[in-house]
Amino acid sequence: MEAGTLTRSGAPRAGLRLPWVGAGLGRGMVVLYLSLIVLLPLAALTDQSLSSGLGHFWEQVTQPQAVKSLKLTLIASTIVVLINAFFGTILAWLLVRDDFPGKGVVNAVIDLPFALPTIVASLILIELWGDKSPFGVHIAGTRVAVVVALCFVTLPFVVRAVQPLLMEMDREMEEAAASLGAGGFTIFRRIIFPNLLPGLGAGVALAFARALGEFGSVLLFAGGLPDTQVSSVYIKQLIENGNDVGAAAVSVVLLAASLGCLVIVSLIQRWSNRHERSVEIDSTIMPFSGGGGDN
Amino acid sequence: MTGTTSSRWGLRVLGLGYVFILLMLPLAFIFYKTFEDGIAPPFEAITSPDGLHALKLTLISVAVAVPLNTVFGIGCALLLVRHRARGSALIDAVINLPFAISPVVIGLSLFLLYGKDGWFEPGLAEAGIEVLFSTPGIILACVFVSLPFVVRETVPVLQEIGTEQEQAASTLGANAWQTFWRITLPAIRWGVAYGVVLTTARVLGEFGAVSVVSGSISGQTQTLPLFVSKQYENFNLPGAFGASVLLAMLALTTLLAMNLLKRKEDA
Fold this sequence. Notes:
The structure holds two protein chains of two kinds.
Chain A: H1 23-49, H2 53-61, H3 64-97, H4 103-109, H5 112-115, H6 118-129, H7 143-168, H8 172-179, H9 184-213, H10 216-222, H11 231-240, H12 244-274, H13 281-285
Chain B: H1 5-34, H2 40-46, H3 49-82, H4 88-100, H5 103-114, H6 121-127, H7 135-145, H8 148-161, H9 164-171, H10 176-205, H11 208-214, H12 224-233, H13 237-266
Helix pairs in contact in B: 1-13, 2-13, 3-7, 3-8, 3-10, 3-12, 5-7, 5-11, 7-11, 8-10, 9-10, 10-13, 12-13
């Protein structure tokens, strides 16, 4: 957004300026903070991954267990994202268009995975669906557990990305379609779904990024068995074994995948802005930026 | 309009069933499981020296990381919205990084930067500052993972309020500082508060990054989430559940605060 340039005789653009410091110094401080907190550590990571040469990097990344964990991470994340795209859209629809007792509670509970520490989630899941399951369902330590844990942590992303779009959607088109004889499913497929697509895409990409890197919730529930080891758990194991270079190499691969997801999100946003689909940049990039509110 | 009554019920069963099994059942279960044998075992676990120390360390992390990221967040949001310039898009992109990167990768990055053979190691060793396996490392990890929230929540609110009132204030002779305190901050306060709540929740629950940099030494570098995992590994279930319930109650408080603030923000 362009800063206003309205100035009166001699009056500086007060209020449009950072207090204490000018924009230049402020920008310098922001860049310094980001560099110290975020960029330098990531640079050190990349540096370490390549410290023994590109050949060694490749060797570490193509270790059988490394490949296996990356594959599991990718496949599980894909499945999870599809499941949550389906249920997330239904939930968003229920929360916006439907009315039922307890709707407020459901709307609030959707954010639970954002608020609940992941290790707590893992502990509950293993007690609920592990050997001592009160329901007799034993999935702890299997690949299904990976999927369930990831479903838990990524559920809010799709709901919170789709919800604001549904709220803003003009219902006239749907009414027109219905008056022309379209059935419920046709209306959804031809009118609602295309309009939700940008939010759904952004939500899915964010959920995917989150699933790729998830650690705490998977740790206890799915465990570190060779067959259920996602990449983040594998990296942790390499660190514990003192293989810093290997850990850094696999981390860089994971990092690249996460960056890819962020790029996709920003492309979707740019596209939807150009097409004037009302995706507010910041309410979609982070689905929990107040996007769940009314209107 | 869309769908008949039966398809509406179908969607309700699917959607609400999913939420029930995935979210509500676990939430209810943790309370049931913790207090199965009364309130004494979980209470004893939390009030054990290690438990109390973990709680203290977690609160220290919150006390440092949250104000730091709040001040940064407001300043950065003002910069991004009111002083759009070349490079702002890049700053914007970097701010989103902590959302997308695996906590373990974040922990490892800090581990490599501050650990032995790390870039900062010589200087830090000389100054006698321990970062890894000690409180500063834990705090750095918490600051990293929770960095985006306040910025992300404040930017849209700043965009929405526009600059008219700020301009009016400055026309009437207010300086930048007065304008910020009297006009801008009151207008964005609910957005900022929402960001603060999310930041706090994230710092309270951070596990992956902290587990790499802290070494999880009981009574020394163990935060509450690390305490949960350690107790579980040691087969002390009441201890793990006691600490978990404490964290879950904090999470519920967070949810409540989020909902109240959302309403305020929209009002």
